[in-house]
Amino acid sequence: MHTVWKGTISMGLVTIPVKLYSAVEDKTIKFRQFHKDCLSPISYKKVASCDDDVTSDEIIKVFETPNGRVVEITEAELNKLKEEFELKTVSIIDFIKLSEIDPIYYDKTYYVGPDSGGAKAYALLSEILKKSKKIGLAKITIRSKQYLSAIRPYKNALILETLHFPDEIRTIETIPGGVPEISAVSDRELQAGMLLVEQLTTEFNPSNYTDTYRTALEQLISDKVQKNEFISTTAEEPSEQKNVVDLMSALQASIERTKDAAPPKKPRTTRKKATS
């Protein structure tokens, strides 16, 4: 599991060396773009409006104001801010009840693992949070972005959940068309709706819910692979190199390719085809 962040959690004078690991995995199926005619991958070039190809040392960072004017932010200025704010210590500011945080504030979840010498203090903080039924509220900077964060117990471990700051949450008034008034609903409709909720109420079991679209897409891809519906691309290496890199894969692919072919008359010919 890849380490996302390494530092310490500070609770008063107690310092706990920890590492953060992403607790969730993005299983979105990603596609590449190929050119239809030559079947080569689509690449992207950095080109200015003057139609000149641009190298990395010719690119500057700018911020554009609402009126269209821009100011340059140099790498030196960014690095100075990073040195000032990218602290490797997460200081717990307050302890609060988990129920006091509306889910709209939650951003991403990380597992917190103890680092060298931090096992005992880690276990202590975990037990304190369990017994008090509280969570620790802190600030953390990950990859040049500062987050409000909640540290809470999860099973036998700790997790850290990054939170949005209040000014990152859009107000309800920004919803196009506004929100309808409750007076638009009759008592009879409300009672019928409440009854429906009661009938559909159950205990939450995460295993009951799956990404049915991703499952169907995985099946579609699997079917195409099983049917050998591959396309030849210019990105493929020459067959001689493939045999050197992974001989077994090449042999297996050759065997699969001959399965649908008519059986040859002579056994000797069959052996030659299978190992070609």
Automatic annotation (TrEMBL):
Gene3D superfamilies xref list: 2.40.290.10
Keyword line: DNA damage, DNA recombination, DNA repair, DNA-binding
Record-linked SMART domains: Ku78
Gene Ontology annotations of biological process type: DNA recombination; double-strand break repair via nonhomologous end joining
Bias type Basic residues, positions: 265-276
Disordered, as annotated region: 255-276
SUPFAM superfamilies noted in UniProt: SPOC domain-like (SSF100939)
InterPro entries for the chain: DNA_bd_Ku70/Ku80 (IPR006164), Prok_Ku (IPR009187), SPOC-like_C_dom_sf (IPR016194)
Chain ranges of the Ku domain: 51-180
GO molecular-function terms, A-Z: double-stranded DNA binding
Subunit structure: Homodimer. Interacts with LigD.
Functional description taken from the UniProt entry: With LigD forms a non-homologous end joining (NHEJ) DNA repair enzyme, which repairs dsDNA breaks with reduced fidelity. Binds linear dsDNA with 5'- and 3'- overhangs but not closed circular dsDNA nor ssDNA. Recruits and stimulates the ligase activity of LigD.
Family designation: Belongs to the prokaryotic Ku family.
NCBIfam families: Ku_bact
The name this protein goes by in its record: Non-homologous end joining protein Ku
Organism from which the protein derives: Gottfriedia endophytica
Lineage: Bacteria, Bacillati, Bacillota, Bacilli, Bacillales
